[in-house]
Amino acid sequence: MHRWNDTVEFFIAGFSDVPNLRFPLFLFFLLVYILTIIGNFTVILLICSSSSLKTPMYFFLCNLSFLDIVYTSVTSPKLIHIFVTDNGRISFSECIVQLFFFAAFWNTEYLILTVMSYDRYVAICRPLHYTMIMTSTVCRIAAAGTWIGGLLGSITPTGSATMARYKKFNILNHFFCDIKALEKVAIGNDSYIRNTIFIHGCLFVATSFIFTLISYIFIITTVLKIRTKNGRYKAFSTCASHLSIVSLFYTLIFGLYFSPKSTVSLNQGKALTVLYVYIIPLLNPVVYSFRNRDVKEACRKIHRK
Known about the structure:
By secondary structure, the protein is mainly α.
């Protein structure tokens, strides 16, 4: 048995249980990664180059797009490398670094989605005070807080994984160094990692979910008070994209990390993880931006120029 400062090595199993699908899966993840980079980078360019998109909502969307790029870049290159070389070996230090940044950007995702829900609450429930509340200074502070909070929040789960005990060689039945995969191969008192996951979930997942839920309770209540059907539609359409992504995101997270162990198999867990690690960042530019009238108009202006 070895501690963190000994020679410990991991082997990422990835999708080795379906060898016949190795090449199709390689093409799938490569294509998803490329499209995610292109889609989110395009959103950033549009928002930065268009004067009509200089609003708090698009400022946070720009942060979300950049987050999705770095978020998927934590795991995608290594996974693609595994498909190409058929070598899933990863050192302990590389595994911990991957876990740290994945947890950091994962935390930041919660916080940004929560801030965006508050932005929608102010826009719908307090429209006359929107420009006074969501000033550029407030937006910058909120954005910086999400990134700093995400980085600080990753210290606890990374520290628990670092201090756990492992064998010299460990097989992770996952496609990256996930905290739950490390928990399964930890020996001795692995309840420390389990308790850390629970505490981390309460601090970030549950808290962000509660604040988001409260925001949407007020939003829905306000929308229902609007007398005209057209007015209700216009008001709710401004947050429909965010609500759809948030609902999908939290459904996957709660189903994967907070459901009883007996209800989610390892293969089901990997499938759910693929959805929130790769598919949601791919869908964000489409759902938030390219179906948005303001973004379409910005695209037309840039095309004409």
